[in-house]
What we know:
- There is one protein chain.
- By secondary structure, this protein is mainly alpha-helical.
- The protein has two domains: 1-31, no CATH class; 57-270, Orthogonal Bundle (MetI-like fold).
- The chain contains twelve helices and no strands.
- The model has no long low-confidence stretch (mean pLDDT 86).
Amino acid sequence: xxxxxxxxxxxxxxxxxxxxxxxxxxxxxxxxxxxxxxxxxxxxxxxxxxxxxxxxxxxxxxxxxxxxxxxxxxxxxxxxxxxxxxxxxxxxxxxxxxxxxxxxxxxxxxxxxxxxxxxxxxxxxxxxxxxxxxxxxxxxxxxxxxxxxxxxxxxxxxxxxxxxxxxxxxxxxxxxxxxxxxxxxxxxxxxxxxxxxxxxxxxxxxxxxxxxxxxxxxxxxxxxxxxxxxxxxxxxxxxxxxxxxxxxxxxxxxxxxxxxxxxxxxxxxxx
Length: 271
């Protein structure tokens, strides 16, 4: 009992601080969707009846889905290739994957303008090689946003997936080979099912992180690819419509919590 009381002395103040500094402001902000200026559901009705808000929500989930799929198509082969390297090379490649974390997201986002802009490296190369006679519109559309978000979020999929692949017992693969299974069958019937929980958890994590992106869609989308975070900025700082922003934030929070529950369930099975 004394030990529990001693632990509580240190834990309770930190818990109160977290509740007051983080949770209470969020609850008060979200409560505006049903309490401003008086108890009402009018803001929710406006959200449901306004095609523009529903379109932005749908566009955000679409971009998040595309980003998760692209990260999966790139990230899984990359993690699988990293697993087959020698330990020294694995360390080098992991360092290269971690390198973007040392650079500001803002700097990386503007760097894509230099690479993919109308007068950027890619377009000048394509026109110089004769593949096109005019610049290709890589930016200020959904393609540009997808490229930027994939660049930022790919390490969040690759690193956990690579760690999970390293935990797969090599003896299981050797046993399958001993029984006469070809390499393709060993991969699809042994290795891939064992890595699937970690892979699925990484995809859900990328999807969740994309839902709240602000800087990348604002810059690479050029205001033509509206997403939830950008719309909330307009509702709060321009109009302002705090109560409607609170309703939209509640929808986003509910979706994120549901997806986080799925992520934790998958991650627990992968552990």
